[in-house]
Design a protein that fits this description.
Length: 102
């Protein structure tokens, strides 16, 4: 299992993720006014806003999704993608998905 920790540069926030695989991981996000605990087990995502709501989501065939400003979840689209960019940073080819034509 790998442990990853990120800190915000624009405001006080952090995330810690304990990653067994891209399909099995859990972690915590902490900001000035919130704490969110999450657990990803295959197609099931459990979220808890500490002191508030808990939800369980079935993700089905979704290959990526966003959880607040999570660096772990923001990594998911990039691990499955073979993407080419131009000098300005625009996508020119997203293999097996789309290509820029103008």
């Amino acid at each position: 299992m790998k442990t990853a920790v990120w800190r915000g540069l624009d405001e006080p926030r952090m995330e810690i993720a304990y990653v067994e695989s891209w399909e099995r991981a859990h972690g915590t996000q902490i900001g000035v006014g919130y704490e969110v605990r999450w657990q990803l087990e295959g197609p099931t995502l459990r979220l808890e806003h500490v002191g508030g709501r808990r939800i369980e989501l079935e993700l089905g065939e979704a290959d990526f999704f966003d959880v607040l400003a999570s660096p772990f979840f923001n990594s998911l689209p990039a691990i499955e993608a073979d993407i080419e960019f131009d000098a300005d940073g625009f996508v020119t080819l997203y293999h097996d998905y789309l290509e820029r034509i103008a």
